[in-house]
Specification:
Blueprint lengths: L20 E3 L1 H6 L6 H17 L2 E4 H13 L5 H11 L3 E3 L3 H14 L3 H12 L4 E3 L8 E2 L2 E4 L1 H4 L4
Parallel strand pairs: 1-2, 1-4, 2-3, 4-6
Antiparallel strand pairs: 5-6
Length: about 160
């Protein structure tokens, strides 16, 4: 039976689940930065979406970078920044070990990113992510099935 005018139809299944996604610290920082309202809005939407769907991943490095920049450059009160680190640590958390350092060095030599960006790349790959959200890396580059996405560039958000 075809639906009649004004008749609501049932959805065809659950909404598609977002891909397992690794957050670079710059995305988390924009969620706190009211100087760029469009980017802040997009960053908050991403954090909320991936928390709700339990598809977000961060590393200890990302949390440390977030705290450092939030308190130094954004002027966030250290207690508030700490609370935000606690909040973001509820994403799946990657804690690199010595072997991860060597893997990051190998990625750095191969792709010419900084060591710290290479460690983020490795943590994203090792944790099974399909997407890495970062403003600092090459948008659209695919490394071993991991796609780097600048969520602000994709939407031309200023």
């Amino acid at each position: 039976m075809a639906p009649q005018a004004g008749m609501k139809t049932a959805p065809k299944g659950p909404a598609p689940r977002a891909a397992r996604t690794f957050f670079d610290s710059n995305i988390l920082l924009y969620a706190e930065d009211s100087a760029f309202p469009a980017r802040q809005k997009k960053a908050v939407e991403l954090v909320v979406e991936h928390r709700r769907q339990r598809t977000g991943v961060v590393s200890v490095q990302v949390l440390g970078e977030f705290y450092h920049v939030a308190t130094r450059k954004l002027g966030l009160d250290p207690a508030i920044a700490r609370a935000q680190v606690e909040f973001h640590s509820r994403f799946d958390l990657v804690e690199p070990a010595l072997a991860d350092v060597f893997e990051a060095i190998d990625l750095q030599r191969l792709y010419r990113y900084s060591y710290w960006d290479s460690l983020i790349l490795h943590c994203a790959l090792a944790s099974g992510c399909k997407v890495l959200l970062s403003q600092d890396m090459q948008h659209g580059q695919v490394i071993d099935g991991l796609t780097i996405v600048n969520p602000f560039r994709a939407q031309q958000i200023k």
